[in-house]
Write a structure and sequence with these properties.
Layout: H1 3-29, H2 48-63, H3 75-80, H4 103-126, H5 135-158, E1 183-186, E2 189-193, E3 212-216, E4 219-222, H6 228-236, H7 248-257, E5 265-268, E6 271-275, E7 280-282, H8 293-302, H9 310-318, E8 372-378, H10 393-396, E9 403-407, E10 424-427, E11 435-436, E12 440-441
Parallel strand pairs: 8-11
Antiparallel strand pairs: 1-4, 2-3, 4-12, 5-6, 6-7, 8-9, 9-10
């Protein structure tokens, strides 16, 4: 098959994926009651209305000049909805609901941008013309950007009061399973971090390049993520009251912010409950605890352990006793519901022991989905890093030693971002993300 024809077929597949991603985010916004669309559930974030415009503005700004030679029909909105806010730092936004356009006007902009893009893309592909070389890359960026927001918006909407949301019908039942925590020994070995630019079929964000090998000494790692039940023991041991368990900056944050328990926990009648997306339930002891990196660090220090580095996590997740590296922790099979809690199948966690078929070659389980996992590694460039020329700040703006790498995935992580090289990152004091952790020892 000629190269041009293969590119056209790939782009048709990408347009189908873009349509599916749009349906995902459209459905996400539909759980917000109309009167709540101008709410700001997380103080550091924009109001919900911004994100309704942002997803389309991002695609429009990314594609219209670089790949489709389209002129702007609303430059003011192209700028207004272009960029979000870093979750921590720089002061809280002070805008009011009345500062934003009406929802009818925003939705009209979204509809026109989407229709204009789709018509231009279909016109180009109908002629079986490969177009500008970077269209395939730009479509992949648009798809994954939207799917990332489908996850980060879930964090934000999680913070909305329950009476400001509409619970979808047919939600799956909660999953519990008995958990026996223990540690697994990982022998010394090498691990490959990142993607190779020599692989023309591999898509990755700029921070995923360039592939390189790291040697990792032997260590032990928790078989499962730390559970709510285990973290409750840290609470009972006055973990939030003892500064020796915390780094100096983490302790100052804890005290100044008044943090005394995980952000998703609520105390009712002297009993701990968990705020799920659509209800409050008695604290599920076998679900992974979601905490900031600072809280995870304190738990690990009290236990005489530490959080893993990015390389340690990668070695424990994808390595084998024979020294080979797997595509996924369990092997080469594509991600599916039997392998973990991911790809928008659920809104909330399951037991860390709910997916025995997720277990890898070392006997470590629940590595993909069910909650991102904090590492000790500051988010930074790999050797050979080159920023995307069309999105230079995507990664580089966060190489500041304040953001830390997270690996794995959450219940709201798309399957395409479960690839081995994918890197997520957040600031260590951000309490809203679906992120847990496991400990290592030497």
């Amino acid at each position: 098959m000629p190269v041009a024809q293969r590119q056209v077929e790939l782009r048709h597949q990408l347009l189908d994926r873009l349509s599916t991603a749009r349906a995902n985010t459209d459905a996400l916004f539909s759980i917000v009651k109309p009167e709540a669309l101008y709410d700001r559930p997380i103080p550091e974030r924009h109001r919900i209305v911004f994100y309704i415009g942002h997803l389309e503005a991002f695609d429009w700004n990314l594609l219209r000049e670089r790949a489709l030679s389209l002129g702007s029909f609303h430059p003011e909105f192209d700028r207004l909805f272009a960029f979000g806010i870093d979750p921590v730092g720089g002061g809280l936004p002070t805008d009011q609901p009345g500062d934003w356009p009406t929802m009818d006007v925003v939705r009209a902009y979204v509809a026109e941008a989407r229709q204009t893009l789709d018509e231009a893309l279909e016109d180009q592909l109908a002629d079986e013309h490969p177009g500008k070389e970077n269209l395939t890359l730009l479509l992949q960026v648009a798809i994954e950007h939207r799917l990332m927001h489908a996850e980060t918006l879930a964090y934000m909407l999680h913070q909305l009061p329950l009476d400001r949301k509409v619970k979808p019908s047919g939600m799956p039942e909660a999953v519990t399973a008995p958990v026996k925590p223990f540690m697994v020994r990982i022998p010394a070995g090498s691990v490959t971090l990142g993607l190779s630019r020599q692989d023309p079929t591999a898509f990755g964000w700029d921070n995923e390049f360039e592939a390189h090998t790291v040697d990792v000494s032997a260590f032990s790692i928790d078989r499962y993520k730390v559970t709510n039940g285990e973290f409750l023991e840290f609470m009972k041991a006055s973990g939030y009251e003892k500064p020796d368990f915390w780094s100096r900056s983490d302790w100052e944050w804890r005290v100044s912010s008044g943090i005394t328990h995980p952000g998703f926990w609520i105390k009712r009648d002297n009993e701990w409950h968990l705020r799920t997306m659509f209800s409050e339930v008695p604290l599920p002891m076998d679900w992974p605890v979601y905490v900031s990196q600072a809280e995870a660090f304190a738990f690990a220090r009290r236990a005489g352990k530490s959080l893993p580095t990015e390389a340690q996590w990668q070695r424990a997740a994808y390595g084998t006793p024979e020294g080979e590296e797997r595509q996924y922790p369990w092997g080469i099979d594509a991600p599916s519901a039997k392998r973990g809690n991911f790809d928008f199948e659920r809104w909330d966690p399951t037991s860390v022991a709910a997916h025995p078929e997720s277990t890898n070659a070392f006997g470590v389980a629940d590595l993909l989905g069910n909650g991102w996992e904090w590492t000790l590694t500051p988010f930074g460039p790999f050797p050979g890093f080159e920023p995307f020329p069309f999105y230079r700040g995507y990664s580089a703006d966060f190489f500041d030693n304040k953001h830390f790498v997270m690996k794995g995935g959450s219940p709201r992580t798309a399957a395409c971002m479960l690839r081995r090289s994918f890197r997520n990152w957040f600031q260590s004091h951000y309490p809203y993300v679906y992120a847990g952790f496991r400990c290592v020892s030497h």
